[in-house]
Amino acid sequence: MKNGLEDVIAAETRLSDVDGDAGRLIIRGISLEQLVEGASYEDVAALLLDGLLERPVSAGELQALLGRVRAEVFVHVQAMDGSLKNLPPVDAMRALIAHLPDGDDFETALRLLAAPAVFLPAILRLREGKAPIAPNSSLSQSADILAMLTASLPTAEQISALDAYLVTISDHGLNASTFAARVIASTKAGLTSSVLAAISALKGPLHGGAPGPVLDMLDAIGTQENARKWLGQALDRGERLMGFGHRIYRVRDPRADALKGALVPLVATGQVDADRIRLAEAVEQAALAILRERKTDRTLDVNVEFYTALLLDALKFPREAFTGVFAIGRTTGWIAHAREQALEGRLIRPRSAYIGPVPQAA
Fold first, then answer.
1. E strands along the chain, which residues?
2. What pLDDT shows up at residue 74?
3. Neighbouring residues of 341: CB distance < 8 A, sequence distance ≥ 6
4. Is residue 359 part of a domain?
């Protein structure tokens, strides 16, 4: 018995491979580094879903289809119960997704790809007392998300940055939320049920809740000169350094460098505070040095959350919405895994080892 199913292989997949020792992520046979260089959200969605739905779809066709479906699901925003805006954004988003019909067909998949992209910006605007912005079907998924969030057309650099993020986190092996999606899919419950289960797993702080606190840490440190002192005191208190360490990676998380690179055009064009990035880089170097000194029994390096926080902050997403933005990108992987499980897998039904009392013999 392995507590937490550590190293237990529970599924065969063609979707992604995570090599924690080498620091490598492969999605459908393509390295993350290659994908991030120029792939859009639609490119990777089409790649992941290839062969898993009743008909193939190109990235260009998918962009047009998603534009149509974003406009269709906006009706759920217009009929939204006002109390939802008081929930954490990811909870409100999950509640709206629960209104969607269930199924395993192509249209269900399209709705589930489009809906989070529409619902999250609408929820965020309602929380600020602003009216939601209707989708623009002529835009790409990333461009429309930003337009619905800010009520203005995003720059090319902003669109590219969000594309890079959504591509980077589109799939990542059999993590907790993806496993939850596959468990539900194995019962033939439907794609909507699978995605709802995945979101429920994602919102747990041990899985998808750490990017926001990275910014809290940077705010508390304040200056480059204060980095080592603050980090040392945090470790003295037994606190975890946010944005460092990963359950799988024993070296640097390759997604961290992909997102750090996505920030470069925003810095070069003055669309993000360069001092903030320099502070983050100083904190990164100080943290890596102090972790090498104090955690000699294991390697702790930068993970995806560190530069996720900086990128999403630069794109004007509030901290409390970071988990919801992650869900927009990861829904692609959840749907692909759910379909793969439904088509090729069995009902997932592991056994447990009973360690409780037993009846006394008569």
1. 16-19, 24-27, 30-31
2. 97
3. 11, 181, 182, 185, 186, 348
4. no
| pTM of the shown model | 0.93
Domain of residue 302, residue span = 211-314
Same domain, 199 and 235: no
* Confidence check: pLDDT of 250 > 70: no
Q: Cβ-count burial of 350 within 10 angstroms (0-12 exposed, 13-18 middle, 19+ buried)? A: exposed
Which residues are identified as catalytic?
246, 305
At residue 70, the 3 state secondary structure works out as: helix
Q: What is the pLDDT of residue 210?
A: 62
Residues 171 and 137 in one domain: yes
Phi/psi at 199 (nearest 5 deg)?
A: -60, -40
Give the C-alpha separation, 142 to 70, whole Å. 12
Contact 55, 340 (CB under 8 A): no
Query: Which residues contact residue 155 at a Cβ distance below 8 angstroms, ignoring those fewer than 6 apart?
Result: 269, 271
Report long-range pairs for 94-99 (Cβ below 8 Å, ≥24 apart): 94/196, 94/199, 94/200, 94/203, 96/123, 97/192, 97/195, 97/196, 97/199, 98/192, 98/196
Q: Does residue 209 carry a pLDDT above 70?
A: no
Q: Between β-strands 30-31 and 24-27, what pairing exists: parallel, antiparallel or unpaired?
A: antiparallel
301 in the same domain as 338:
no
